[in-house]
Amino acid sequence: MTEHKYKSVLQFEKYIVREIHYLANESYTACDDSISVDFDFDTQSYFSEDNKRMEVELCAYIFNNAEKKNYPFEMSVKIKGFFCLETEDQRIQDFETNAVAILFPFIRAIVSTYTVNANIAPVILPPMNINAYLREKNSRKDKWKTTQ
Predict the structure, then answer these.
(1) Can you give the pTM of this predicted structure?
(2) 54 exposed, middle or buried (CB, 10 Å; 0-12, 13-18, 19+)?
């Protein structure tokens, strides 16, 4: 069978929701225009000394500074994923981007579910290449640092 040929050596053990922060903006005034979702992401990874286990935190920030920018709410979600390798001949650090990509749909689902249960229009984060987004964000930070 060819199924083993395509099986990843990276194993996703589980994820946990570390933190959810939601704050309704009671002074929000709806405009006739639809609001585009303002979001940002951060990630942080932790590796075991033997390079076989990894924990990856993915954080989403939706509508930061809601009151100042007249958004209906602000929200942050932090999840942590736990990963390991099935093989001895690779380093888990090489799979960090895979782990982030695995976690991203969970963040999307949590944001959608939470907002619909908050009795507001559900916020659906767009499907995206989260790793490309983070690379570009870090590139902008590095450029800013070198101009200081």
Answers:
(1) 0.87
(2) buried
